[in-house]
Amino acid sequence: MMEDDAHGVHDYLTDPRNADILISVNGELKKRDEAVVSVFDSGYILGDGVWEGLRVMNGGIAFLPEHLKRLWAGAKTLDMDIGLTKEELTARLVDCLKANGMEDGVHIRLMVTRGIKKTPYQGPRFTITKPTIVIIPEYKTPVPEIVETGVTLFTVHVRRTGPAEQDQKLNSHSKLNCILACIQADKAGADEALMLDPLGFVATCNSTHFFIVRDGEVWTSPPEYCLGGITRGNIIKTCREIGIPVFEKRFSLFDVYSADEAFITGTFAGVTPVREVDGRSIDAIDGPISRKIREAYKAMQARSLTPIA
């Protein structure tokens, strides 16, 4: 059975074990209803922080070095010292997973904020503690039927901004433009928002990356207007490894509506087919190229694991 409030690509199967998980708050393990942060925390007051989503499978964490590299790059961009080495943060992740007895089918939200403020104000100089580091591991398995049914997308008016406004490469807690896009897609009855760049070319989705297949080629948008997705990058690598032509290029809704196949990607669900964009049906739901990419990506994911033990 699905969670009542889950929707689209983030649908997951209910797991009663999540009621009793232990959450790491600055290195201390807390029960779910006791895991709290201060109302003066920078993340709560300002959305001042960075985060990563991590997948745990077969006794390891997938693509961990790549995720930590992005986390550190984001923190440096925000002029924020995480306060731990990558090795120390990895140990904290492993300790949290071991305390919960978790080895497979787990999704982690790793969050780092600037810390607690002495008063609600933007200036980092008003921060009076070390960064707040929270690790939330949950048992989450994507709903398997979604591969057969695919998801629907709706093109929203909210645009992805460029580096002059807020650089989309920054995986920050400030996600308001994505939230607004998500709201508009929800109101339109779609599973996910398709977002355009300032010139009207396809950029990405509100929480996933977007790919189309045309005449045996895989297309995705250039990196200027989307997050530097770990899964996105690995899908591009996968295509090159298995000999599928892949291009990062600008394309329009014309190319999307007439695509042979389309799919979205993300850490949680991997590769998910798209069945419809703005009421236009995609020719093949989970077509042959999408399936080939998904299976090759799963193999790459399995090779990438950082062992928990």
What is the rounded distance between the termini?
Answer: 31 Å
Q: What is the CA-based Rg, rounded?
A: 19 Å
Q: Largest beta sheet, briefly?
A: 9 strands, mixed
pLDDT < 50 runs, ≥5 residues? 1-6
How many H/I helices? Answer: 8
In short:
With 309 residues, the chain is of the alpha+beta class. The chain contains 8 helices and 16 strands.
Write up what this structure looks like.
The chain is of the alpha+beta class and 309 residues long. Strands 7, 8, 9, 10, 11, 12, 13, 14 and 15 form a 9-stranded mixed sheet that branches. It has a 7-stranded antiparallel sheet with strand order 2-1-6-5-3-4-16. The protein is built from 8 helices and 16 strands. Strand 3 and strand 4 form a beta hairpin.
Main traits of this protein?
seven-stranded antiparallel sheet; 8 helices; 309 residues; nine-stranded mixed sheet
Write the topology of this structure:
Layout: E1 22-25, E2 28-31, H1 42-46, E3 49-57, E4 60-61, H2 64-77, H3 86-100, E5 106-113, E6 132-139, H4 146-149, E7 151-155, H5 176-187, E8 192-196, E9 202-205, E10 209-214, E11 217-220, H6 230-241, E12 246-248, H7 253-257, E13 261-266, E14 270-277, E15 280-281, H8 288-303, E16 306-307
Parallel strand pairs: 7-8, 7-14, 11-12
Antiparallel strand pairs: 1-2, 1-6, 3-4, 3-5, 4-16, 5-6, 8-9, 10-11, 10-13, 13-14, 14-15
Helix pairs in contact: 6-8
